[in-house]
Amino acid sequence: MKKLTVNEIKQAVNGELTAGDGNADVSGVEMDSRVMKAGDCFFALTGEKSDGNDYVASAFVNGAVCAVMTDREKACDVSQRFPDRAVIIVSDAEKALRDLAKYYMEKFDIIKIAVTGSNGKTTTKDMIHAILSVKYKTHKTPVNRNNLIGLPLTVLSLHEDDEAAVFEMGMDVAGEIHQMAEIVKPDIAVITNVGVSHIESLGSREGILAAKLEITDFLDETNTLIIWDGGDVLTKKSAAGSYRLLSAGNDGKSDFIISNTVNNGENGMEFSLEYGGKMEKFSLSVPGEHNVINASLAIAAANIAGVSAEEARAELLNLKTAEKRMNIRGANGIKVIDDTYNASPPAVRAAIDVLMNTKGVRKIAILGDMLDLGPRSSDYHSEVGRYAGMSGVEFVAGIGEQSRFTCEGAAEYLGKENVRHFAEKDDFFEVMSDIVKSGDVILVKGSRGMAMETVVKKILE
């Protein structure tokens, strides 16, 4: 990051410097005392199970020159042990982190792109980053840093010579994306879709739409929102605002029109995209028709940022998916589609499509619970099970409490003999060798909280 002085940080967070040198330089910001480097500033964030104020001494031992704390008594104690280190007292360390990120962001004159959506936002972010990197030195949100703590840390890790940045914005409740957008103030915003994830806290898909549209709260007529125009809730009409609105779609009415899609199974996708009066052909190394949607949005965003189709083409062909996202691996004659990062009904259906287009003797889906789906959770699970059965999956294993409804839906098409429900992963592991055979292609998917990657590991051992 660009160096800041302790005094700059104090002013940005509206804090009180109680110890140390205000003129000392800070060259990084972190919240984990174990990864501190010389010159870093440690933010003592308080969670449900830990108090960051208890780890300031460890941060100082590991090289931190400054700490932002909320506990005066603990600050006094640590200052006596480390009299040469700076301590800034604030009332709310998380808000202070956001305030500092907002101050730091204003130091940059770069292309800023923000991405949100119920599904596909990480892949779309990675695609945009890959394409922009052809022309610009581009920064992006790392894995698991798309929330109100991770995004400020991403901003604060911007390098002095960065020319563009792609920020992923996730959310659990209304208002979170607004706060992230206030920090970034994007030039280009992308909404991939509006599904049912977090419907438990937001009440309805319209509530989810409103929360996603918070990404536009700081856009004006010089900025652009790009949407996938293939849904029922997110539409050109519902997304209209005081900014330029562009859409990608396959109905012939969008600004970026998808056509001639060819599914090459595990070998990726081919498609054409018509925009700017030209028809351009693209190939993806990653499987799944849903990734054609993600790619069209990425191409649209990069186009607005000044990257040509020619420059985008090679990067999309060479793109690799992030860990736990549609990774196809093999061992002992078995192929495993590892899509365990997260799950929602549309994402599971898309993963089942990939499964059915992957070569193998038998197609198996091992599906964990989809979490945070609210009062209709059982219906959503049943629908996914029926989709698996209708698609031709030959065996479905459900893991978790809600996945029993997945199994019930699948059994309507596959019969009970080709469906098994397991309350826990360990129950599945006990009989796994009886289910999984050489030649099988196995999809493993579930919500993050289900930790379904342990199933992938067991199968591949």
Task: Write a structural description.
The two termini are 41 Å apart. This protein is globular. The longest helix is centred in the middle third of the chain and has 15 residues, at 290-304. The chain contains 17 helices and 22 strands. The protein is of the alpha/beta class. Helix 5 (121-132) packs across helix 11 (290-304), helix 5 packs across helix 12 (309-318) and helix 14 (377-391) packs parallel to helix 15 (403-414). A hairpin with a 2-residue loop joins strand 15 and strand 16. The chain has a 9-stranded mixed beta sheet. Strands 17-18-22-19-20-21 form a 6-stranded mixed beta sheet, with helices on both faces. The chain has a 5-stranded mixed beta sheet with strand order 2-7-6-5-4, sandwiched between helices. Helix content is 35%, strand content 23%.
In short:
This protein has helices at 6-12, 56-61, 72-81, 93-105, 121-132, 150-155, 176-184, 199-202, 205-212, 236-239, 290-304, 309-318, 345-356, 377-391, 403-414, 425-435, 453-460; strands spanning 4-5, 16-19, 25-26, 28-30, 40-43, 66-69, 86-89, 111-116, 138-140, 164-168, 188-191, 224-228, 244-249, 256-263, 269-275, 278-284, 327-331, 334-338, 362-368, 395-399, 419-422, 440-445.
Essential attributes:
single chain; 461 residues; alpha/beta; six-stranded mixed sheet
Largest sheet properties: 9 strands, mixed
Task: Please tally the helical runs, counting DSSP H or I stretches of 4 or more residues.
Answer: 17
Binned, the helix content reads: 25-40%
- Strand tally, please? 22
What's the N-to-C terminus distance?
Answer: 41 Å
Uncertain segments: none
From the alpha carbons, calculate the radius of gyration and give it in angstroms. 24 Å
